[in-house]
Design brief:
alpha/beta, five-stranded mixed sheet
Length: about 150
């Protein structure tokens, strides 16, 4: 499977590792939902490959937040993701946040398993693990747990 973030934070770009922002809950959620046997840290981001997980972003340009991205950046970013999906054929594409996916494909997107796929691969959308998203942590984590349950079937 592959987790697709919107774009790197300034902190992640500075240190060169995914989900390095202090308030980001990606690494704890990954462990608590059962994707990893221990909580990894941002500097261990390549270790997720050992768990059959890839990481990428829709837009590669780092920003302080989603509002610093132009809508025109999303579609090319999603188009850039498609060749990776064709080459690596992950079992599932999980978006960490719906902004990039929603902006690229248009329309309203709900969290959870999507009715559409990307290159024949099921798509699941989780709430962003960024601390800036005002959704309670336990609710965000529940989507990661649901995704894990779907993958275990």
């Amino acid at each position: 499977m592959i987790f697709v973030g919107l774009n790197p934070s300034l902190k992640s770009a500075e240190v060169g590792h995914y989900y390095a922002g202090r308030g980001n809950q990606f690494w704890p959620f990954l462990h608590k939902a059962g994707f990893t046997d221990r909580q990894l840290t941002p500097d261990e981001d390549t270790t997720v490959l050992d768990y059959g997980i890839g990481l990428t972003d829709v837009v590669k340009r780092p920003t302080r937040g989603v509002n610093d991205l132009a809508k025109r950046e999303f579609s090319p970013g999603l188009d850039g993701l498609r060749p990776k999906l064709i080459e690596y054929r992950p079992g599932t594409v999980a978006f960490n946040g719906k902004s990039g996916y929603q902006s690229a494909i248009g329309g309203r997107i709900d969290y959870g398993l999507q009715s559409d796929d990307l290159e024949g691969i099921p798509v699941f959308v989780c709430p962003s693990t960024s601390g800036a998203l005002p959704i309670p942590q336990d609710r965000k984590l529940s989507y990661f747990k649901t995704l894990r349950e779907i993958l275990d079937r």
